[in-house]
Amino acid sequence: MPGLAVSPLTVSVPAGIARAGVIVLHEVWGLSAPVTALVVRLADCGCITAAPHLYHRIADPVVTDGKFTQARRYHDTLTTEGLTFDIESALAWIRAQGAQKVAVIGFSMGGTLALWAAATLHIDAAVTCYGASLTSPRWPGILSGIDATGVLKAPWLGIYAGKDTGTPARDLQQMREILTHTTTQSSVVVYPEVRHGFALDPDLPRHAADETADAFARTSLFLKTHLRET
Q1: Residue 155 lies in a domain
Q2: Which of 48, 63, 169, 187 registers the highest number of CB atoms within 10 A of its CB?
Q3: Matching PANTHER family, A to Z (predicted)?
Q4: Which residues contact 174 (CB under 8 A, 6 or more apart)?
Q5: 171-198: pLDDT as tens digits
Q6: CA pair distance 106, 127, nearest whole angstrom
Q7: How far apart are CA 125 and CA 185, in angstroms?
Q8: What is the per-residue burial (b if ≥16 Cβ within 10 Å, else e) of 166-193?
Q9: Where residue 97 sits, what CATH number does that domain have?
């Protein structure tokens, strides 16, 4: 992007030598406190971690959860060019710190992007937490979830909520069927009794502690499997 050498990042680096990294992609609300907390948590687990500020071109706002009309205005300013630049800036920074393998994990809006990244960018693994837009592109130039599933380049773990109207069961089943024909080690996990946004912020009414614990355990195992040195 003209005039920018790098994108703004919130980062955390573990103590000692780390050979793996994680990019965290935020929800539609912006780079909120729960996202920052996750960046620190992942670094504490041994990963060089960076979260790109995807709204930095519009003063880097953080929107109160639930004020979707306001957040949607910021969401709609995002472009394929800008998103690619921001994610690749995070990727380059993490690799410059010594990471040999890098994963992407995204939540909601960021989950949509994590799946797209697994299909189009040079990453080693990706995790999507309840990313929607399964049948149609969220932005021009960004593959729908189903289309991205069909062309995965990296192992991908999709974590979804059974009571999320944005990710209907029929679409998730179609993704599972597509994955039976892929050579990547990818899968879809659905928690039947939870709603969209159940995992990131423990202070929200929709937070589901048991499912969140299981989702993060699965994510931890997935990242350890695909980010370990060969």
Answers
A1: yes
A2: 48
A3: ALPHA_BETA-HYDROLASES SUPERFAMILY PROTEIN (PTHR46623:SF6), CARBOXYMETHYLENEBUTENOLIDASE-RELATED (PTHR46623)
A4: 146
A5: 999 999 999 999 999 999 999 999 999 9
A6: 6
A7: 9
A8: ebeeebbebbeebbeeeebebebebbee
A9: 3.40.50.1820
